[in-house]
User: Fold these one by one.
Assistant:
Number 1:
Amino acid sequence: MSKATVVTGVIGEDVHVTGIRILEHALRSDGFDVHSLGIHNSQEDFITAALECEADAIMISSLAGHAEMLLQGFREKCDKAGLKDIRLYIGGQLVIHSEPWEETEKRFLKLGFDSVAVPFNLPKSVLAEMNSDLCSAQDKTSA
Amino acid sequence: MEISNKKWSDDLFRKEREKVLAMWPTGEDVDLEDGAAYHHRLPDSQNAARKVLKARAEGKTLLCPSLGSDTVENHKNLLLHMQKEGQADILTSYIDSLTRNCRFEMASQGLMRAEAAGRPVLNGFPFVVHGVEKAREVMDAVDLPSLLFGPTPDARLTHEIGLAAGQSGYSGGPLISFWNYTKNVRPEEVIQNFQYVNRLMGCYEEMGVPILYCVSGAMPSVSPPSLMIVPEIIEVLIAAAQGVKHVQLNNWLQGHLAQDIAYIRVFKKMTDHYLKEFGFDDVETTTYSVSPTGRFPVDEDRVYALISHFTMIGVMGGVQVCGSRTIDEAKHIPTPEGSAHSFRNAKMFLNMLQPQKFDLSSHSQIAVEEEIMEAEVRCLMDNVLKMGGGDVVKGTVKAIDEGVLDQPYSTSQLVKGKVLGVKDSTGAARYFDMGNLPFTDDILSFHREKIAEREKILGEKVSYETIISDMTAISSGSIL
């Protein structure tokens, strides 16, 4: 029995895959069910996959700096598709320009993400966060 | 798609060729005999295969930078600059990424913008939109050989035009293109495209034009060298079946002296072994080394040290050709000046070391690495061949599906991606996770022991955090 189901992938025409691949390994070995989409995904790809595997969370990676542009209206589309409570995580190199981290984080929280990972965030802290977010949430549903 | 490692019939090649040449209007101007005649008009010193064979006979190492710009003028000037100021011995013509993805219309628009703006717009030379005549202007301007450069799942039309325009080789291959440049393309499809490219090279060989095919296998990411060597040997065997006669083995150095030198030696030995086993007795093998693809430091002083370090390993391993990264590439696309500085540095290092002919063949640390690496290569190759009933192409397709051939950070969703590497206490790459690789218990315990030595020093188990820190170690200033 897996802890929770997570859809992972890279958004847009971005081929950087190393970071999300390591996270996938870390998530799997910690007991998560990982549904990996790899590179080159659209918003719709993430939503379709999340519906198909009844995911608890979507984790998006982006290193090319175009994430904000590519993710406009994502939370609204999730809501419309019936993924109202799905947790949305994002991490990577999220903007092209340099700005204080708090500004970047704000941009993506505003887009409806539940959690925005600071660059070079390590798997241990991602796992800790996901365990506390998703596993307690599941306990609630089973209770 | 049923596919095997048999030589294509003339009929099949001719039929496919009609389709390939129709992919873009410039394909109409390609004529094989005219292409070969153009090569025969060029001096022998402008043929890459001849030049590396001469270097092998003389025990010398040549320098080969990676270069590419969009307009004929920009590309010509870049190559001339490296010929004159960068002390290069072999030049390269990097194919822009739009052309590599067969997006010729977009490449054509990019080229027009570059011509109008008078500054580079594309990240390489778009052979297909230039066509044969324009591309020959580059070869007419320089005195050195040039190679096509850059992995891509479909390099067929680029080869038709590039080879006819006097490029005398290519660096890339079906497996590196599959692992790193596709998402959902079956390996059969990429291999078939490369059988075409290799058959075309074979046609030039039959007309007396040696073509240097530099296989590339797989890019390393803290990867034990057997993860690169096996795909490269497979690429060699696929090429040899189609009539390729000159192959260059690409050694992806990672900075560990004993492991990297063992890599160069084992790779050559095992390639020659399998070529012989399949009866390809007239295929010449030469070797090439290049520094790793991961992040490099931003600080130029440190990069100079790294360029020297990787040049040293190449020379000590006895390669015929050394490539190198450049001092400025952590900051932007390398400038001609940045490339020239980098290669002058490499050349000085090479000139100091090479005449000494320092022989490391009996060094005990290298011998340990060679023994384990050879066992790994044999184990993987023999399993692949077994899975294909003796046919390396059939075996490769099955082995990828079952994770017997695997890569840690592939862009392809069709790759198992179970294997992972981590460094040991000396900085050599070891298997952290062997995934489905069919290794023996001896191999397994060798890697476990090496990792245990590092864990003892660290005082904790190696983890995903260790792997990440290993991948960024060099850019942070150390091998570990």
Number 2:
Amino acid sequence: MNSNNGSYAAYLKYLLPALFWIILVLTSRDFLLQVEARSLFLFDWFWIKDFMNTPSGILQCLALFLTQFLHLPWMGSFIWVLLLALSAFLTERIYGISQNRSVLAWIPAFLLAGANMSIGYLIYIMNVPGYFFSPVLGYLFILATVAISRRISSVPVQIAFIAIWGFAGFWIAGYYAFAAIIAAGTDHLCSNKRSSRFVPLITGIAVTVISPLALYGLTTYNIPQSWSLGLPTSLYIETHFRTFLPVITATAVPVILPFIRSYVNRPVAKPVLLQTSVLTVCIILLYLSWFKDTNYRTEISMIQSVNEMDWNRTAGLLKDLNAKADKNKDYQPTRVMVLLKDLALIKTGQEGQSAFAFDDGDMKQKNSYDIPMVIQIGRILYLHYGIPGFCHRWCLEENGEFGWSYDRLKYLIMTSISIGDSKLTTKYLDMMDHTLFYRKWSEQQRSLNLNRELAAKTAPYDKIFPLVCYDDQLMEDLRGCEYTLSHHFLAARPEQATPFYDRVALFWALKSQDSRAFWAKFLLYLDSSDPTKLDRYYQEAAYMFGNMEKNRTLMALPYDKNTKDLYEAFSGVIRKNEMDLKSLKDARRIIPSQLRYTYYYYYTFVRGLEQF
Amino acid sequence: MKKLTAILILSVVLTGCSKVPSTSVSDSSYPSIFPDNIGITVPANIAPTNFLIQDNAQKHITVLEAGNQQVILRGKKVMIPFKKWHSLTRQGDIKVTVYSQTSGQWISYKPFTIFVSPDEIDNYISYRVIPHSFESYQRLSINQRDLTSFKEKVIYANSMVMKDGTRQCINCHYFRDYKTDYMQFHARQYLGGTIFYQDGKLLKLNMNTDSTLAAAVYPSWHPTHDYIAYSTNKTYQIMHTVHPDRIEAFDELSDLILYNIKDNAVSIIENSPDRLECHPAWSKDGRTLYYTSADYPEMKTTNQIVIHMDEVKYNLYRKPFDPDTRAWGPTEMFFDAAAIDSSITWPKVSPDGRYILCSISTHGVFPPYQDKSDLFMFDLENGTHRYVTEINSDQAESYHAWSSTGKWVVLSTRREDGIYTRLYLAHFNSDGTFSKPFALPQRDPEFNRKFLFAFNVPEFTIEPVRISARRIASFIRGSKPTQVSFESKINQ
């Protein structure tokens, strides 16, 4: 019986983390890469020292050090899972959890795993550096404190240890230090030692209360904040409970375990049943907490593809999702997905042929706190659409709010090269040189910084420089980046407009559903194109506007037969179902799929979308 | 015995490395160092001006010599111990020779001099430490630096009171007569108000009244009476799409007000509807107020100002004032900057009253954001003015302040990378010129390159701020602002 129980537990110890790691790597590559992209660790003593000057800074710094390994998702996630496994192993060992109840030791690890996998849209606004690794490191800090505390036999020395550790640990690990000394206190309280049983715990509680008060003024943090330093937080206070709760619950386990030690140490009659039940509940909870929203995952993957400049994949991801969602009549993509798809098509020169061959819409993102699009993808859009000043601005704003990151540093470098600010580019490149995985990229960019002609021929600048062909403008983007881009490209044509600029401006005119804007840009397009080989959607728009405005000259263009046929078919469907077509939802339900991916459909139904 | 041997070996190694190379090839050029300390003039009481040697050599030896003192340092980062630094500065000018070794061959660069002025500098400067962003200011503090050391302390940080989801900007700290028993700064938004510290007491004031434009902004403390002249501004900012300046800040409206501390009341100094008034600065005797002002007859809306941004030029004006009766005389244009297609901002009168140091840029009211902004100086005694070319760089020079003796100025500049504002100090010579400015000394010479916050609004003080940050924060958190009253225009 015992050996069976033992092998079951041992089997779990190896299988569970291995399985979790494999699932993670297979399903969440882009998420892990985005977590890494939103962090920064520099091998620079000056930079590290800055962390050491703040409470919980050392923990955050160590967490950032580990986060960088997510650059290789298999490696970073392996380290993370290994730490989770270590936390379970140490919990079992330190608290002497009997082998046939050993699954109980996994509960904190499950909670910590769930905390990370439930982040969802908070990934854009997490403002504690190293939030992905710091909870598990904090938990290990607690276990280490309990282990050290146990080795101290003298109660006065233990009290001194708890007091000193409370203050010192506050600088190392913030909140986790307080959880650690209280855990050490409860551990002593429930131990067999008879002398001064309550004193270490009281000391721990007292230090927890006093420490932030005593250090207030040295830290520049306000007092209530001090107790939660190091916990994963985001920009929005209403999300804190969600991000705190699993972590706080996990860290409460070492505080509670000493009280139930006699229970957890005792062999159980039906161990397999207990282990399986607990494990099942944990797995179900982890599965439920895992943020699996399809649009979110697609957005994350599209952003990652853009960062890798894999434009075909960027658009392909949305295409795949459209295909999967074809039968779902309520399906709409989010604006983030649509805008990234448009960008990808422009980069690959397919916008005229393919832009409306995708579902369009403004599905609200699955979060209850509206995160402005500019924070999610503003830097991407502004850089690639040739407004580098705005890209620079948002990178800096976000650095101020959420801390520096590889991603924003990369965009700062690319945007500075696009502006032609060599001195500033060098400053940012010098920073990038201190990273582990981006040195080669930095080296390439350094050569482009020194050679603008070479840069002009090299991606991504080959398609950015031609868009920076206008005189500088003063603008704001309070109405959102989609509106700003539309406004920018629909403005008067710059004198030095390049063919690529005209092409992008034509596309935005097409999107605007404004015939006057479209004609102005379309005539330029006609001048530079073979009229028998016009892109599909420009033909459709010209044919439709020409019909609507009864413009005989434009109607005389050699349109493809398909353009005319689709127009007739679309008009027929509209006439037939006029009364039932009130919204985009109705249209998606009623209009046959071969007409859904036309400009006629876009012009008629994709209107008044919510920008944010 | 083993210990003794180890010590001996260590001593031999160390002393061997710290010797001046016996043979070296002379290089006729100066070494490339950061910050650029070549030929600078420093006060004897300043902290060591550490620097970094920027070459790819394997070994470096730096020899600093003054009088009969010699200090030899190894390494690329030349970090001079305090005692040795002061043993040098006591002797006078310091000759610096840098040796670099590559492939076993030593070269000696052309020696340079750090000139040591007998004019001491005020011991403290205070400045704002701000992340380089335009709207985000999660971590923002007003700090004080002891210039005789590398010690820095926080006077107040917004994070000490901010809660999640709140914002608090802090700005415009100012001291009366270089002393810290009278100081003020503004806290905006969350728990906001103008914070006054005087005679050991803190006050929080709401300086926005029904009859004034907005809260008080840029201050100038009257030298003899209990008044502070302020501008009151409605400021906006807007972004460039491509230009390296990246942003423009501008006033849609602005006036000048006088705050009478004793009566806790404000009155209007200037509020012409056709003009934007800003940056008040008292003369030494307090009988003249200098300020800047721009016409904007055609530009009544934000959009129009944005469109005509380049045309907004601030000139320098002055206005007589009787501090006893609070009577104002007629306004007089002192300098027509628009006539030279420029805009003048931030006039600062020297402590002896003879000079006015200003920022000058192509347009507008906010020079830090314009890389063409420079310092410009008026000599009131002989009626001349000039660009202070010996201080200016190809990047923005913006805020500046005189030391209490008038022998030093501190200036904000973006000369290092074009984006992060850093503080430089320069000696003001008796002939009305400045010596080459030097970067505020830092323990780590690479500090300015690596520190990802900017400094602005540096102000000298002769003594430390004694009130603790903790007390200021507690006060801001626990107090409600006292409303100042409005006095109608008086004695105009």
Number 3:
Amino acid sequence: MTQSGRPGPRVKSVRWSAPAVAGAVIVGLMAVLAVVGPMVWGAAADRIDAAAILQGASSEHPLGTDNLGRDLLARVLVAGRYSLLLALAATLIGAFAGVVLGTLPSVLPARGARLVTGTVNALVAFPGLLLAMFTAVVAGLGARGAVLGIGAAIAPGFARLTQTLAATVAGSDYVAAARMLGVPRRRILTRHVLPNIAEPLILNLAQSLGGALLGLAGMSFLGLGVQPPDFDWGRLLFDGFPRIYVTPEVALGPAAAIALAGIGFNLLGDALARAAARTPAVRRPPAAPPGEAAGEPDAGAVLEVEDLTVTFPGGATPVRGLSLSVAPGEIVGLVGESGSGKSLTAAAIGGLVPYPGTVGYARLRLAGQDVATMTGKELGTALAMVFQDPLAALNPALKVGGQLAEVAVVHEGTGRAEARRRAVARLGQVHLPDPEARSRQHPHELSGGMRQRAVIAMGLMGTPRLIVADEPTTALDVTVQRQILRLLREVVDGSGAAGLFISHDIAVVGELCDRVVVMYAGRVVEELPADRLAEGAAHPYTRALIASLPDLDTDRSRPLAGIPGVQPAPAQVGPGCAFAPRCALASERCSAERPELVAHGPAQRVACWEVS
Amino acid sequence: MRARAWVRRLVRFVVSLAVLVVASFAMIHLIPGDPVRASLGPAAPIELVQARTAALGLDRPLPEQLVTYVTHVLSGDFGTSFLTGEPVGEVILTRLPNTLTLALLATAAALLVAVPLGMWAAVRTENGRRRGTELAFSATTGTAVAVPEFLYAIALVAAFAIGLGWFPPAGRAGPITYVLPVAALAAGPAAMIARISRVETLRELGKDYVRLARAKRLPGARLHLRHVLPNTLTATLTVGGLLLTSLIAGGVLVEYVFAWPGLGMKIVESITQKDYPVAQGVILVYGAIVLVVNLAVDLVLGALDPTSEIRERT
């Protein structure tokens, strides 16, 4: 779908969402606590009071006292600095070791590089706590062993990150360009590689800090980290934990501090990562034009559309006032540039316009019945859709035959075996070689053309009255395109269904379709029989589309003819003809007043002041 | 092609295992000073230290020690505890099942809660619908992910064992004693998996095959469970598998809180008491479990995802 993107003023609002603010505030408070904590409460934290040993909460000691009668609240507030410093030390050690490990492969000979890469890959999957325990055994109990261990646990992640980042940057076009220009290697490293990998590395540093803090707290809590007389939050929890049976509040302070720090760093890290990952959004403004098109639906038509409008919040109206009808056995081509609203028209007919878009119409009937009143079963069997990329349209996890069969199983209550038999028959009908075997394969085992045949076969599982094909050949090889077009024709002729064929390629449309409807900026500008395309096209836009086609006579040494200018965004369409700014024939009237679709010879209608 | 990828993966497993064995062997030798002296304490008579050193074979040349160690490990002999004289292999065998049950139950609990929760959140908030639900979901899970398992454990003990008295606060005796440790261990991973499940589901919901399935007018349950779910599982299970290894490590802390008679409790004791053979053996087993889990995750994924064959190739 070309313009399913929501018109979004919400990109910016995420950046400082509530969680991000909460994270920043918590981390900020932690930093302040680390600076001022020991200065303010240092004395209280160390004051031994033999008269107040192992007390629970009291007004004097809100969190109780420890085995020397020291105030636990003060100790929690003071321990912040040590806890954070240890975490910082472990993170920096890990980051440094990791960056060195990560750059080694680019310096070492191939065999050594593979060894380092292999080691890093093996270590990345290793839980940090196990590594920390290993170093705790080797380095002995205490803060040093724990910091080294947590650092060692952080290093592999940094190494992997450095390695992949450096590889990506080194393979990028601008580095290749710098090399071609003869920029020396060292300068490439300092000017191109390092600045481009610094940001993700710093980001990872921020995120690792929280992990290190929790890891160190865990080690201290197990009695394997900080040892008395030093204390961090983990150690305070270690001391308080055995007492929770009697005075649970003594464990509350350190537990809350650890939890809060963990949450704060995590929320902030998340927000930072999200901000960094946000690439500048390619905003594709949905095209939208004014007016309602003419056209009375034919009596015997399978598809009757009158005054179809698709609106998105914010006033963008990519399709407005579109009318269309398709007779049984007829294929109507809907042509236009991307953004003209053709794909959304198809989505609206199929009831597939994505939230928050809304669809309005005066009449939308399939086989004489209002689409809104049709049940899922009726729509599911009467409407077949074919999309651009058949690999994406088939579920990669399910076998081809099963995906076909389920239409019959779900909507018609057919038995599995019978449904499978029908699936194989339909696959044969679309000339898929060896349909029995193919039905038991997964989509990725089929070629592009075979997949598109399978999708078409899926549409034939019910009794299709309308086949909507949205750019069904764009993703295929030229030779395969032709076969698929022929198949579509054959299927429409064979089933008596109506076909709606959507394409940006007017040549393909002219070849396959009976009638052509040209859309520009959300509305129909011309409607004519396909065989009159070459000679009888009247609207300047249609003529420009045809003129832009290269054919055998085109002089390939000269630039292809294009249409100057771009299709206007919905908000930019003035009161007049949307094509006027790009039109060579445009007069004053064209930009002031919008032309209606009016008859122009037999079976042809045009919306243009200058030619009608 | 597929067979070759599997062989490659197995070779990697065997090499990692070999490195692990050497690392656990090296551990005792990396300890600065004399590990036997360190474990027996400064007051121990020199004869005892020498006798213990000889009994452990620590006076032999290094290469010989390595060969002995590897042959012993391969035959299931992990040495004997400095403190109790028990064979380490036996200690591991009696305790390993308790640790594994805990980890597996927690993984199962996390997946069973988190995958449906994540999918539900994705379907509810598709295309930016219901911003409030989305915000509440990400804030809750973001917070839950950040709280370490030992704090969950302590909080659960304080609330449900000591406060309400519904569950025993520690020990392992009967199914009811599993509830709190499993909950403590599963909470963080569940929040993480729910997030991933939501993101993956959202990604799948935007794809063409879902549009086509919707055009086929499949009922919601079939669309989500049969079409979307299998495609989200690869990523979810990858992370679930990686979480399983972190869950094994987290189990150490949870076991400690609940005095759970598993390997985690043992490793903490052995390190604190400088009982090096036990620490060495238990770390080796933990490492091997991690390697096996990672291998299993890869093999399961290879079997689950029919396109992984392509991915291997490119």
